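step: validate -> pass
step: tokenize input -> pass
step: predict -> running
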Amino acid sequence: GEPDVVIGVFDGKFGLHPDDEEVHELLRRSNRPVIWVANKCEKPSAQITATELYGLGIDNLVMLSAAHRRGLRDLVD
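step: predict -> pass
step: emit ->
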């Protein structure tokens, strides 16, 4: 079956990657709701770097650290 929602996960620690634009466009064209996530954002410096992802046209970005279990509640909500 088709998914009800898609979670697009980016590496927030290193900021915008050259392939991120292609991934963003592919998911955006899926005609499914997309939750945009920047992972590896356990440090404030990574959260600042992850803001580069807004340059893709993302309005709402959930910043989390899956390994440290930070921000997972925001993702669930």
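step: describe -> DSSP finds three helices and three strands in the chain.
step: cleanup -> pass
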